[in-house]
């Protein structure tokens, strides 16, 4: 996979971009305070190791060669930087917490990195409406902490919350663990402040829940991965905190039971259902093998084809527990039970332990071998078919076994239609890579699915965009890109080739 | 207000548009079945009274002079019509249920009307995910009825639900009564099929909950009021039906208590809170005067400055009632109670009666006199200030009293920050109009509010757009319009002047 990505970067069409030079660094020094300009070029001469964190992602999968990183503190500074870059055709990579998975925030060559890290102030919070206005560089966890004393939570939650920034969350339309309950950022983001590729500040930082006055331009920047402008401020609706959460793990004899189970759970738990996560048998066993607790007995697991984790979050613990207990009772006492058994968490430690089983799959796969990971959206009913078809395809190529692919497994967010298809191999090889692609993308396309449910396109999947978007859609994306960024300086060669 | 609108239409800059002529009608007859072409021109010769319903809105406030109405049945037919119109520069007004309030769906002159009424089939519904895919012309109520047996509801609900169409709901980004609970259409619409102004079909009719593959173009058409293309199909997420609903009306001694009350109610009712509606004293008394039930005793009303209607919707009646009863008890037993009293509905008839009191304000205002209505978004804390400032301003102009303005009142959706400011006058006069505008718009702008929270811009408020959107925003809207519709044929002079 690394090789593949590196090959792609070699084939980039080289536009008439300028590299950052000393004279540019001098200009940036004239408009920014000293600590805000990091450059290996004179007169700055920052040591290269200080630039390294901006030139690679947390997975160390992508590497750029940026000589210069700017860390502006204000929107006006961002605007001045971008205006200058537009005049001098200097390409820019906007960078948030650098926690993406698809190489969207790393330079492909020596683009200028504009880090939002120093724009990290809360601008306002209204504890009545729950509307928060914050600089783009605020870290998700710090915003969560900021609103918590006011009995509110952020509408998104991610594993990367300690590092990722709200501006990056919005730019990548981050999904995460709360999407089932609180919906997408297209609904919860109320306003944005964006510096456009010519340096203009587009102020749509409204803190209104309803505003039907013309086109909702801010929506274009949600999920554009910094290719249409730099998000500098975010207005977002934060929901009231739930008062109680609990969870249960259910063992199912057949995958076919997942969908009727989901229907039953939705109906009985209604507004308190906050997660419905699927783990197949292979994923469960890998998680247990690599250190997670065995929630179920040998006997329970023996008859199970897959597992479901259900979480509730609600306003009163005794009501929620009563609903969940009644659900379990009705499931187990049915004439033809949809589940073999279920284990309800009895305390916060068990609650965390059940979640760790689900969340531990990722780590278990890494420990077991080298992972080819696909983050796809497909119809709920086809989750198992896609995993099975991939396994059979690899088998037909003679690639199944300890020598090549050890496991093919599926897990993910049933409630969101989002399957994480993982192929766990002894080693990364071109043969496996070629067997998987375009096979998996074509399989996804045959279900009218998405080749990137939540991770985005970045630089990794630009070649695969056509599997999920029609030629007409891609042509219109390019027109929008050309309209906002005629010189192509803003995060070039990301999202669109 | 009528005069004002008519004046505006007289001032339209006349572009090089073609009027529909007989030769065009002949072409439309060649591609559509006979009943799908209504035209007063030969060879069709439809009687004018059959065209009248397409040339005026339900309020009879706007009147067009369209000679020709087409009622295509398929997306391909819409595409063929639009392609032909683009070639011949014939302006088009897309028309749904014609229930808008701002003249967005009525021709300003003799534009071609393309009615979506015959595109009224459900394309698919997945009872597990709740994802519904439907033709744009499906009536909201019929979709509500369609998903109800599967224990789902539509995420929007409007007074006009018996006539409005889902395509029109999306095109106008309709808000309505469920927004507090289920969020805006920017979150719940998953995909759209749109015929662009050159006739191209943009197929983004995905039924995926998550899809991060490039720019979310469909968002541009949500709230564009048909000026960027004709929505022909909608994919939308429908929530599970709540199992129980109940409501309560609360009398507050002071407006200042509304905000702490909202905070308390949000915290205690959490996920089951589905409406929090505000009615000021004047609005309450008008509703009672004109036939709605008096929910509270004379004594309760005497000490009340305003009223709040709280609705809950949840998964189990006994849990919801317990939460609501506990809320009322804690409110009434507080050391410094935020409310004077509260009346909890005890049965479905009382539930409807409390809602009728809130919803009856609109009708009461119509019965009392001539209404100047403003649908604005402003910070919750300023609701009363805006009503008071408007009243004082009219008083300072000598316009308050039986001879001119009888009442100035406010009601609306506190939870959404959406105030309906109503000025109830003995008659529509230019003097009152001039006293109100631009006064009200400037007042809204001073709070960074929205001059159209949910009704849209249409042809009525194009001149007021700048009170809510910056010059930069409006300039970018115009660039987007020019990109999608370079000939300006799609719903011309709506949204943008």
Automatic annotation (TrEMBL), chains A, B:
Cellular component GO terms, alphabetically?
A: mitochondrion
Mind telling me which SUPFAM superfamilies this protein's record contains?
Answer: FAD-binding/transporter-associated domain-like, FAD-linked oxidases, C-terminal domain
Asked if Flavoprotein is a keyword of the record, the answer is yes
According to the entry, every stretch annotated as the FAD-binding PCMH-type domain falls at: 62-241
Alphabetized UniProt keyword annotations:
FAD, Flavoprotein, Oxidoreductase
Keyword check for Flavoprotein, yes or no: yes
Q: Which cofactor does it need?
A: FAD
**Entry-linked Pfam families:** FAD-oxidase_C, FAD_binding_4
Q: Which InterPro entries match?
A: FAD-bd_oxidored_4_C, FAD-bd_PCMH, FAD-bd_PCMH-like_sf, FAD-bd_PCMH_sub1, FAD-bd_PCMH_sub2, FAD-linked_Oxase-like_C, FAD-oxidored/transferase_4, Oxid_FAD_bind_N
Matching Gene3D superfamilies:
3.30.465.10, 3.30.70.2190, 3.30.70.2740, Uridine Diphospho-n-acetylenolpyruvylglucosamine Reductase, domain 2, Vanillyl-alcohol Oxidase, Chain A, domain 4
Q: Can you provide one Gene Ontology molecular function annotated for this UniProt record?
A: D-lactate dehydrogenase (cytochrome) activity
Reactions accelerated catalytically? (R)-lactate + 2 Fe(III)-[cytochrome c] = 2 Fe(II)-[cytochrome c] + pyruvate + 2 H(+)
What family is this protein classified in? Answer: Belongs to the FAD-binding oxidoreductase/transferase type 4 family.
* Designated name of the protein: Actin interacting protein 2
Naturally occurring in which organism (per UniProt): Mycena chlorophos
